[in-house]
Records
---
Amino acid sequence: MMRLPPFKYLAPVSVTDAVKLLSDHGPDAIPVAGGTDLYPNMKRRQFEPKVLVGLRGIRDLVGIRGTGRKGITIGAGTTLTATSHHAEIARHYPALATAAGLVSTPQLRNMGTLGGNVCVDTRCNYYNQSYQWRKAVNFCMKKDGEICLVAPGSPRCWAVSSSDTAPALWSLGATVTLVGPAGARVMPISALYRDDGIEYLAKRPEEIITEISIPPADGMRSVYLKLRRRGSFDFPVLGVAVTLTMDSDVVRQARIVLGAVASLPREAAEASALLTGQRLTTDLIEEVATRAARPSKPLDNTDLTHPYRKKMTRVFVVRALRRLAGLSEHAEHGDAQA
């Protein structure tokens, strides 16, 4: 049986107090909200904090305000269940509602938070194992070792971004608010991520994500599709988020964001650009999906084979665009009815 290591738990009731505690304890401290990812990682000795700064008692981090017409702001401590069930989110931002509702199991979604999933640790077959297993293979670069066991000749870690909600929020043009000792700052969620399996967040250790904001859903259509071995519980081995902003039947703006194929969510910008100013047709969808698969470069470090995951990127982009276009999955050729 794997057990948690000893630690001190601190329970601030304000963001200001939480930031101060993180600053005071420095690298010994880690913030925790739902803990659905952190506690298992601690049991495997992937994280070994001496202090946990609990965020569950901070009321300002919980809640959803706004509308699809004006834009939505979601407290980072809002549970995934509350996010997925919220009527305005489900109606106007279905990609996020779907993504939040596909994380793990109902029990863990009741505990896990949106902010926690946005910041969830990167994953790898060589990293997400017990301490004894990792010791037997001489550890990896991400924890206790010196080389990446997936790509031994590489100077960097290739662990994979495994958040469901991050690609959806990125495609929706979301921003995040971070609060630290120097005050608050707001950034596009796309700027939150780094292409590095270890230092995968641009968030400073003493900062806390307090809220996520999504712009008004004027003409937005969005969808999120997830590939995994089992229909529940599993992390994504591929996520595809697509958001189109439509002007009648013409695409005014498009974002296609891929998850679980790199150390950060990967935007397929070239493919998205092909959609701008166009009406959705099956021929265009096929061309866009082919381009969207290019930045998908999975390695052999998660479930299922990487050639299969690469091929499924194209398939899932086709499915997502057909759904947004109102086409059946078995449509052949012809114009989509937007």
---
Amino acid sequence: METLTDEQLLIEYRNGAADRFELLVRRCSQELFHFLYRLLGSPAAAEDIVQETLLQVHLSADRFDAERKFKPWVFTIAANKARDYLRSQKRRPEVPLHALTDPTGGSEATFADLLGGSSVSPSLRIETEERSRNIRKLVSELPAPLKEVLILGYYHGFAYREMAEILDVPIGTIKSRLHSAVAKLGSLLTAARSACDEFVED
């Protein structure tokens, strides 16, 4: 069973193999949780929406198009439920970022490195822990559409086409939002650094 694709597992599940769903849940739950936690900033809310998403997968299994990929489909469900949650909360939660390096030239790290999550070495994570805490407020100022593309693209590695499918927007919009998100985050970092330097000088 471990060699079956996600798509095959879902198809077999809807054809009566009940144990396939358990394996599918084991495969996707953790990544869905990380996606939703980064988007919502609340582990409790992320866990709840993971459960809602998986329930929706169960309920919609018969309607899954076997020609599609499972992962973008399930992330589409999760993203829609996260938007519903945010609308119900009427607030913009913070998104924790854990892997920030110095973008002023002192480091060759790219924004992909900044948002690369699991690829960061322990020593770099320790060095940047304080900066990561300080940056949360800045990231929370990004509009929700910009947060979405950053999280999907950098944390979860989705291609432009897949992000367009998940968010139900054209590929051109994805590219534009990603460019805007990186530019906005860069300007926020620069402004914050300047304010900090002025405070130190005073």
